[in-house]
């Protein structure tokens, strides 16, 4: 079914909004995904363009979108042109990969492993990997001296270590191994520092794929390496035994407590005003201080969305932890973006078609 919409609110922006910005933005209505063109000239209605569940990922700072389809396929759409870049199978276990200031996603495309880069063209890897370990938590990046590594699982259930700073090529000096852990040095009056890695069998290092914490020690043999992957020796997977090879106090990542997550901060009403900029604020509702209302302070605190109940969260980007809002209508689950500074989308416009604003 085709839909025709007129968005007079967006026409003002059609000439002023430069093409270097993202021209398409996702929204959800009744659990279905749609794409809105910010110029108002085109709209892809909810689920009209994709046969799938409506799940999506934002690549980089709104450079493109990964749209989930049925049959396990995923479509990558350029956020500026709205055109398809390619179709593959996203490694959802891996999810977002953080490499320095860039972000990557691992895909299988025609049997090959491909990394989608937010800042450039897709990169085809030399080996087809079953999946790549997630590293979105900054404690898990394996970063030392600005070098970062990815841990990629092959079809034979052994790993390659990929050097991100060397074109994601495998470290070729390592033996075959089925499991691993990271070793951190304990410093006086300084943060923990990554100082090495331990490699071994699944029996020795009893972790499941993607597991970072809560790995039990064992009396089975493992190999110990420094951060240059120089072998320091062989010992059992026990804290004290490994510390002796490094000749210092250590902490195994598998025995650490998980750090708190800070991305995409949820805004919790605390009966106080949250100033977004000199034009927009979130203020407590007069009849319910436990609810926030998005208002235009330059127009006498006029509600931007009416007085219905909404949930708000900051969406973080590489440049700003509080870049824009994602807004969810509490009753219907409809959600959309609101860029209060105009960094990525037209400033101060609820980025959902008027037809779907059922709360008005």
Automatic annotation (TrEMBL):
Residues 1-18 form the signal peptide. This is Uncharacterized protein. PROSITE patterns: PROKAR_LIPOPROTEIN. It comes from Sphingobacterium athyrii. It comes from the Bacteria. Keywords: Signal.
